[in-house]
Amino acid sequence: TKAELQQRLGLRRRSSPLLLCAGPFAQEDNLEELLAHGEELLSRKLQLVFAGVADDTRRAELKRFAAGKRERVAIVGDAHFDDELWHTLLGAADGLLLLRDTPERRLQLLRGLRYGVVPIVSAPGALAERVVDFDVISRTGTGFRFAENDTQGLLDAIRRFCETLAEASPRAA
After folding, report:
1. Cα–Cα distance between 45 and 55 in angstroms, integer?
2. Burial of 39 (0-12, 13-18, 19+ CB in 10 A)
């Protein structure tokens, strides 16, 4: 459950959206751009879990970002990552953020969809072909899409994700 995962990762137990950002993380992901807007992300009362292998540069960026935010941000790196934890993450997450289209992330998307996790994916590519962008007017779609390497579009997709969850569950804080 979400509460069990929050406890396991040292996150504060809360009902706000838990967004799982799945790696592996590399330079092409523009992770630094996302982290540069971290305060804006956290102002949405999200909890962020970054899961997957990262090179030394990205690992250092993630650690700097998470410093002082231990109750809201967790990092699950390659040393602590196993299949059981991956299932637990998908079972507890509200959203699955995939920054770039790669074969590993296509598998993560399919697994996430089986768990009912709302995907936030970059377009174009195979990821976006499997995700219909959510339309707030018609209330249709399977997730949220953003243009690859478009940080503002990514932030907008996360904002729409949070707003949609808040509308669906007004008790979320």
Report:
1. 28
2. exposed
Structure tokens at 101: 């289209």
DSSP, residue by residue, 105-156: HHHHHHHHHHHTPEEEEEESSHHHHT-PBPBTTTTB-SBEEEETT-HHHHHH
From the number of C-beta atoms within 10 Å of its C-beta (0-12, 13-18, 19+), residue 29 rates as buried
What does the pLDDT look like over 117-168, one tens digit per residue?
999 998 877 777 888 889 888 888 889 999 877 889 999 999 999 999 888 7
- The per-residue pLDDT for range 12-39, each reduced to its tens digit, is 888 889 999 988 888 888 888 889 998 8
- The bridge status of strand 144-147 relative to strand 18-22 is unpaired
Across 102-118, b (16+ Cβ under 10 Å) vs e yields beebbebbebbbeeebb
pTM comes to 0.90
Alpha-carbon distance 155 to 142, whole Å? 18
Contacting residues for 26 by C-beta, under 8 A, at least 6 apart: 54, 55, 58
Radius of gyration of the chain measured on its C-alpha atoms: 15
